[in-house]
Amino acid sequence: MAEEAPKSEAPAGDGPVVVKKYANRRLYNTKSSSYVTLEDLCRMVKEGVDFVVRDAKTGEDITRSVLTQIIVEEESKGGQNMLPIGFLRRLISFYGDNLQGMVSQYLDFTMRGFTQNQDAMRESVQKALGGMFPFGDLEDMSRRNLALYQQAMRMFAPFAVGGAAKPDDKDETTGKPGEGGLDELKAELARMQKRLDDLSKK
Q: What domains sit in the chain, N to C, each tagged with a CATH number?
């Protein structure tokens, strides 16, 4: 049976570009009406172009697997390795673990924070050329991101990070017994949002 000819499919409004993957593994950009490679998709990611990859036959969203392929391709290039072996081993060990979902959220949270601070990171690297080593700034940012993430996890999954609050726990700011309830949660969310806003401005 002959394979269906590709059709142009301009995204609606500001939606993502649709890329179709055919049985012969060829990728077709429906916006530009042209075949593309993994390297082209990698370039689109770096340029901030949002896209979704779908199986041409079933319509299934296979974006995750294609992005993983891009990482494998990039890691296979000489001198382009970014993922340490130790990190990969630890990451693999979490598959199937009951903390898998939390690891995924933490990695996404950390990368978002790193991206928001990328200008500061580039400046640190430039300073390093003048004799200043940037890893102190990196470590400081990582500690702040981790602290914010842990605080968020305490609100929404207390048993996963340090255990649930006890009846006799005291409020850290007033020293009075914690009352819990909706008002306390709202106040904590407000403080969390302020810290995130302050961090994004730095």
A: 17-76 (3.40.1170), 85-201 (no CATH)
